[in-house]
Write a structure and sequence with these properties.
Oligomer: single chain
CATH topology: Lipocalin
Structural class: mainly beta
Shape: globular
Pfam family, one: Phenol_MetA_deg
CATH superfamily: Autotransporter beta-domain
CATH class: Mainly Beta
Organism: Caulobacter endophyticus
Strand content: over 45%
Largest sheet: 17 strands, antiparallel
Distance between the termini: 47 Å
CATH architecture: Beta Barrel
Signal peptide: 1-21
Keywords: Signal
Radius of gyration: 18 Å
Protein name: Transporter
Order of helices and strands: EEEEEEEEEEEEEEEEE
């Protein structure tokens, strides 16, 4: 039986036109998988959370579903160009169903700690570094009980009325046999365009190649999302990701909210 692994944290760069001239609109790493180059203002707190996140994959008569509830990222602005982020999922369920098979595992997820620092901010181009570490806190069967980490390098380019973001990332992950480590390389091309002062639409192409010695697996998805500014510091979003090859989950749907304090 094919094994399935799902990452339920999703993220995106978002550029929104200010509907309120006297306050800077919230800038988030959601809704899509790309990261933004902006950080939370110094001394401010920000919460970015999934209301719900559902993923499904089918292969060989087997259907695997993952449901995450309230996966939440808490951010704190350390300086004008850096912040600290902690992500945790309080409830995660993985279910595999098929002929003679109906297995369900649920519980809490792992903790992810990230540090974002913007290393370049020009009129047209900005760049940030995002090293992270995963702390193994997930319930049995929902994680691999190992510390893992990596670094993302979001690069945003201001276009005429839109923002183009590239998101290369390298992760160092545990081998399938548990004996060593291998690299996974991820790339994202993300285009975000405000269509009103409050509404931004996002399209994205995401690829990830996992170079495990046992088997190299490449995943590809096409992602779409929308984000709406209810207020300068409050954003609602929703999105859908669609797998483009057999190794990628067929569909992922989510809704979320972000709030700066």
């Amino acid at each position: 039986m094919r094994k399935f692994a799902f990452l339920v944290i999703t993220a995106s760069t978002l550029v929104a036109t200010a509907a309120w001239a006297d306050e800077t609109p919230i800038c988030t790493d959601r809704p899509t998988k790309a990261n933004s180059t902006c950080s939370v203002p110094k001394g401010a707190w920000q919460v970015e959370a999934d209301g719900g996140n559902w993923t499904q994959a089918k292969a060989g008569g087997i259907k695997a579903e993952t449901t995450a509830v309230a996966a939440t990222t808490l951010k704190y602005g350390l300086s004008d160009s850096s912040d600290l982020q902690v992500t945790w999922t309080p409830y995660l369920q993985a279910r595999v169903k098929g002929p003679g098979v109906d297995d369900k595992t649920d519980g809490v997820g792992d903790v992810w700690v990230r540090y974002k620092t913007r290393v370049h901010s020009g009129d047209k181009v900005s760049l940030a570094l995002l090293p992270y570490v995963k702390i193994p806190t997930a319930a049995k069967g929902l994680g691999n009980d190992e510390v893992e980490g990596g670094v993302a390098v979001p690069i945003s380019i201001a276009l005429d009325g839109a923002t183009l973001t590239f998101g290369p990332q390298v992760d160092l992950l545990l081998d399938a046999d548990g004996e060593g480590r291998h690299a996974t390389v991820t790339n994202v091309v993300n285009l975000a365009r405000p269509v009103t002062d409050r509404l931004t639409l996002v399209g994205e192409l995401w690829t990830s190649s996992n170079f495990d010695p046992a088997d190299t697996v490449t995943q590809v998805s096409a992602d779409v999302a929308a984000a709406y500014l209810v207020a300068p510091t409050l954003q609602l979003d929703a999105g859908a990701n669609f797998g483009l090859n057999r190794d990628t989950p067929d569909a992922q749907l989510y809704v979320g909210v972000s709030k700066r304090f």
